[in-house]
Amino acid sequence: MPLMPPPRHSALLPALMTLAMLAACNRQPATPAPASQAAPPDTTTTTASATTSHASAQATQSSTAGHAVKESTDAYEFSYSWPAAADAQPALRARLAADEAAQRATLKHDAEQGQKEAARDKYPFHAFGHWQEWQVVADLPDWLSLSSLVGNDSGGAHPNYGYAAILWDKRAGQARNALDLFTARAALTGAIHADFCKALDAQRAKKRGSHASLGGDSGFDACVDPLAQTVILGSRGKKAFDRIGFLIAPYEAGPYAEGSYEVTLPVTPAVLAAVKPEWRGAFAVQ
């Protein structure tokens, strides 16, 4: 399901995250809870899951809280949270805390500047916003895969949103770029491109209905580069990475009105062959 941006002046991210976060990779999909039943991020953490080759967003609630902060002023609304699994990794916790502080400082500065400009030029001011909730994609003995939907509002026509991801190497105590686990971008692209484009076009056709015109070489009819999207690694078996997900923000594969796209593919022998030898033990063919 597409992820929609957070509305202004509301509870914002909790309902958005509970209904939408991040398809990719571990559990049987279930019927999404209505927004009115969504739990706020300062009382629960959420894990996302899906099992088909097409990503299907669905979040489940956990009784163990990690970290969450929410702040609302006349100038801005801010929320940032991460799950207990991330809080249990000291270096990762420090990284997230630093990012939280930086995001808040930037938001506060920009919102106060926007407020001053609105007063000076005598136009209505709309509160700025930043909403971010990190969620677990896969928690393996040696790895923690996280993803986040990031919402931003700078007082324009509508809020915008995109994705972020962290692949945490527990043994090394550091983050790694998921693509760095593969021998070359070309090798991974060759292993997934056809299946990725087929899955993306199937989702486009479902959204566009009779208006779909796919397979072109330009505009929103063309396939997009999967490795230019946010790449996440997931695990259905919960022992090794056996799924690879691609989170595609609005405007990348379709107009803003279509929302985001999420494609999840299994790790195949071709994908495994594209993994660097030193990391192949972290993967399994699904």
Q: What's the structural blueprint in terms of helices and strands?
A:
Blueprint: H1 13-20, E1 45-48, E2 59-62, E3 67-72, E4 76-82, H2 84-87, H3 90-121, E5 128-139, E6 143-153, E7 160-169, E8 174-176, H4 185-208, E9 230-234, E10 243-248, E11 261-266, H5 269-273
Parallel strand pairs: 4-5
Antiparallel strand pairs: 1-2, 3-4, 5-6, 6-7, 7-8, 9-10, 10-11
Strand line-up across the major sheet: 3-4-5-6-7-8
- Estimate nothing, just give the exact number of structural domains: 2
Helix fraction bin: 25-40%
Shape annotation:
flat
Largest sheet: 6 strands, mixed
Rg from alpha-carbon coordinates: 19 Å
- Give the CATH topology of the largest domain: Heat Shock Protein 90
Structural classification: alpha+beta
β content, as a range?
25-35%
Q: State the end-to-end CA separation.
A: 23 Å
Order of helices and strands: HEEEEHHEEEEHEEEH
DSSP helical segment count: 5
Average per-residue pLDDT, rounded, comes to 80
Q: What is the CATH class of the largest domain?
A: Alpha Beta
Q: Which superfamily, in CATH terms, is the homologous superfamily of the largest domain?
A: Fervidobacterium nodosum Rt17-B1 like
Low-confidence runs (pLDDT<50, min 5 residues)? 1-63
The number of distinct β-strands equals 11
CATH hierarchy: architecture of the largest domain: 2-Layer Sandwich
